[in-house]
Structures are given as C-alpha cells and as structure tokens.
Design goal:
Blueprint: H1 2-78, H2 93-192, H3 196-345, H4 352-477, H5 483-491, H6 493-496, H7 499-502
C-alpha cells in the first residue's frame, strides 16, 4: 500500500508536470505563431521596400539617362564633329558612365579648341587692324606724294604757258614782219611800173591808199587784239580744263580706292558679323545648356538626397531587424535548451523533435536573409558611390562650361563695339564716296557748260570776224582801176587781206 501510495503520488506529480509542460509548449507555440506573423509582416514590408528601392533605382537611371542625353545635346551644340555615344539598358549603366566620361573629356577638349579659336580670331582681327592702319599710312604718304606731283605739274604747266606766251609773241612779230614785207613788195611793184597811166592812177589813188592803209592798220590792230584776247581766254580755259581733268582723275582715283577699301571693309564686316553671330549662337546655346544643366543639377541633387534618405532608412531598418532577430534567436535558443533538458528528465520525448526543427529552420531563414541583405547593401553602396563620383565629375564639367560661357559673354560686348565702329567707318566712307561722286558730277557738268560757252563765244567771234572781212574786201575789189595795176594789186594777197596778218 505504501508503494502504491508513492506511485500514485509520483503519478500525480508527473501528471502535474506534464500539464505544466503542455501549457509551456502551447505558450511557446503561440509565441512562434506570433513571431511567424511578425516575420510575414516584416517580409511584406521588406518586399515593399525592395519595390520602392527598385522604383527609385529606375527613376534615378531614367534621370541619369536624361542627364546624359542633355550632355550629348550640349556636345552637339558645341561641335558637330563629336561622335554621339549609344545608350544601352539600365544593366549597362556603368559602361554608359565610362563612355560619357570619355565624351565629357572630348567636350572639354572641344571647349578648349573653341577658346583657342576665339583667341586666334582675335589675333587675326588685331593683325587686320594693324594692316589697315599701315594701308592708311601708305595712302597718306601716297596722297602727299600725289600733292607734290600736282605741285610739280602746276609748275610745269606754268612753264608751258610761259613758253606758249613767248611763242605767241614770236608769231605776232612774224606776222607784223610778214605784213611789212607784203607792203614793201606792193610798193616795190607799184614803183616798178613805168607806164604814165599807172603813175597817174597811183597819183590819183594815193589818198585812197592812205585811207585804206589806215583802215587796214586799225582793223589789223583790232583783229590782233581780239585774237590775242581770244587766245588768252582759250589758254585760260584750257588751263582750267586741264586742272578740272586732273581733279576729275584724282577724284576717280580716290573713288576707286575708296570703293576698294569699302568692298574690303564690307567683306571684313560681313566676316566679323558672321563670326559674331556664330559666337552669339554658341553663347546662347551654352547659356541654354547651362540653364538646363542647372535644372538637372537641382533635380539630381534632390533625387540623390531622397535616395540617401531612403538608403539611411533602409540601413536603420535592417539594423533594427537584425538586432530583433538576434534577440529572438537567443530567446528561442534558451527556451529550446531548457525544453530539451526538461524533456530529457521527463519521459515524454515525443514532442521535442517537432519544435526543434522549427527553431533551426527559423535560424537558417534569418541567416539567409542577413546574407542577402548584406550582399544587396554592398552592391547598392558601390553603385551609389559610383554615381556620386560621376555626379562630382559632371558638376566640375558644368562649372568649367559656366566659366567658359562667362568669358565669352565678357568678350561679346567688345566684339559688338568693334563691329559698330567698323560699321560706322563704312558708313562714313560711303558718305564721303557719295559726296566725292556728286562733286565730280557737278565739276563735270560745270566743265561741259564752260566748254560749250567757250565754243559758242569763239563761234560767234569767228562769225563776226568773217562778216568784217567781207565788208572790208568789197571796196578793194570794186575799184575802177585799169587792169594791169589791179592785177598787180590782186596778185599780192597780203596787201589786200588784212585778216591774213592776224593769222598765226
């Protein structure tokens, strides 16, 4: 009985322990179910974070691809010789960034070449200005030489005029001597007459001859004075005509020279205006690219900030999850160890193998998730570092482009001022050329009018002289003298026609 009582007591104790263990097992199962539910919720949150991260990654790749396309557009605006790189998918982003790095280096070299080209154009412009000044100095020297030649020409014309005056004086003396010789010959012929009839006629006509001689002398003096006056006037007009011709030739030469200089200046002005338009277009394109890059830079900074915040939150969440999973694993391991010890002491080994695989599977799952999270975080960190480095390079290139654009904008007003100065100079040359042409036309018209007036005066005086000669010659031809003396007088034209004495 005592043994039965002990057995009953032991049985009661064991039954109570079994009840306690079953309760503990139910509690642990409830905790495991709670942890599994929590893990399912965390898995859902993790999948959501992965989706958001993938979306952010896609958005970032699209943004970077648009930035690269904008950079390519900037390169095309800078030069047409740059080869346009081809884009692949999002998987080849690293290769695309290396290609774009090479493209940006080419853009740098192209910008440097543009800057050197602008400097070369500036040096060429300075050389052209120096050549223009040299040509102006040479034109001034030629003008002074031309003025000296004109002075020499005027002195030579004065000498020619003096020689013409001397020649005229000699011609007048020759004419007077010829008239005297003619008179002497007429007197000699009259004196040689032996007939009494001729002596009577000469005695009767002595008074008439004296009157005719006086009239001839007066007419010859008058005609000589008129001829001298006309010759002097013709010489003056001829001198003035030569001066006007010289002026016309000088004006033509100056006009041709100014035309050539005007054409050259127009060509230079057109070249400078075309270069200035090209530089203005390049500056506008660079300004537009700079504004676009500024907007893209702001968007990239915002997106990088959001990406950095998401990465920080993701890392914090992973750290908190790892800590919680470590604590739970420690608690589960402690509980499993206590359960194993209690089950070894007890005689119910059938329930432990069901709980132990669950805990081991949970530990394995947590280890796999930790490894995958660590691997993903390392790859993401490497990509983020690569993108940050590329962004730094892009910002440096953008700053360089902004600096070059600022230099070009500083040089632009100088070129505009020089272009305005050249345009004003061209206009002044055009106005001076127009005035010179108008003056030449006026001088030509004045010269033509003067020549016509001189011709008209000479023609009228010739007509008047011819009328005077006909009136004087009629009384001589109508004399009632015998045939022999009249034939003797008519045989000498110098005694009858005083117009011949005034002829040169």
């Amino acid at each position: 009985l005592q043994a039965l009582e002990e057995l009953a007591m032991n049985y009661d104790q064991k039954a109570q322990e079994i009840l306690l263990k079953t309760k503990e097992l139910e509690e642990t199962q409830e905790e495991l179910s709670k942890q599994s539910r929590v893990m399912h919720t965390k898995d859902g949150e993790l999948s959501q974070l992965k989706d958001t991260y993938s979306n952010q990654k896609k958005k970032y790749t699209e943004m970077m691809s648009s930035l690269l396309k904008d950079l390519i557009d900037v390169g095309e605006c800078m030069s047409d010789q740059l080869t346009k790189p081809s884009f692949g998918g999002a998987e080849r982003l690293d290769e695309e960034f290396t290609v774009m790095r090479l493209y940006i280096s080419k853009m740098k070299t192209e910008a440097k070449s543009l800057q050197s080209r602008v400097r070369q154009l500036e040096e060429e412009r300075v050389q052209h200005v120096q050549l223009l000044r040299k040509s102006e100095d040479e034109s001034k020297e030629l003008h002074t030489r031309l003025h000296g030649l004109e002075v020499k020409l005027s002195t030579l014309t004065d000498k020619v005029d003096e020689s013409e005056a001397r020649k005229r004086q000699l011609q007048e003396t020759v004419d007077t001597l010829n008239a005297e010789v003619a008179k002497l010959r007429a007197n000699e012929q009259l004196m040689t007459g032996t007939d009494a009839q001729s002596q009577q006629i000469l005695a009767g006509q002595s008074s008439i001859r004296a009157k005719l001689d006086e009239e001839f002398k007066r007419q010859s003096e008058l005609y000589a004075a008129q001829v001298k006056e006309l010759r002097d006037e013709v010489d003056k007009k001829q001198r003035k005509l030569e001066e006007l011709n010289d002026q016309v030739h000088n004006l033509k030469f100056q006009g041709d020279k100014s035309d050539e200089e005007l054409v050259r200046l127009r060509k230079e002005c057109e070249e400078k205006s075309s270069k200035l338009e090209q530089l203005e277009k390049a500056a506008e394109k660079r300004e537009q690219a700079r504004q676009d890059l500024r907007g893209l830079e702001e968007t990239v900074i915002k997106e990088l900030q959001t990406l950095h915040n998401l990465r920080r939150l993701f890392v914090q969440d992973l750290n908190s999850r790892i800590k919680r999973s470590d604590n739970r694993l420690k608690a589960s391991r402690n509980s499993s160890s206590t359960n194993q010890l209690n089950q070894i002491n007890s005689n119910s080994p059938g329930q432990q193998p069901g709980a132990q695989p669950n805990t081991e599977q949970l530990v394995v799952d947590f280890d796999d998730e930790d490894d995958s999270n660590q691997g993903g975080s390392l790859a993401q960190r490497e990509k983020i570092m690569f993108l940050e480095n590329n962004l730094d390079r892009l910002t440096k290139v953008h700053k360089q482009l902004v600096h070059d654009n600022a230099e070009l904008r500083c040089e632009l007003p100088k070129l505009e001022k020089r272009l305005k100065a050249t345009v004003e100079r061209v206009r002044s040359l055009e106005s001076s050329l127009r005035e010179a042409k108008e003056g030449a036309m006026r001088d030509r018209k004045r010269y033509q009018l003067e020549v016509e007036r001189i011709k008209e005066v000479v023609r009228q005086r010739n007509i008047a002289a011819r009328r005077g000669q006909s009136q004087i010659a009629k009384p001589i031809r109508a004399g009632h003298a015998p045939t022999a003396p009249s034939a003797g007088l008519g045989s000498n034209p110098y005694a009858v026609r005083p117009g011949a004495m005034g002829a040169p």
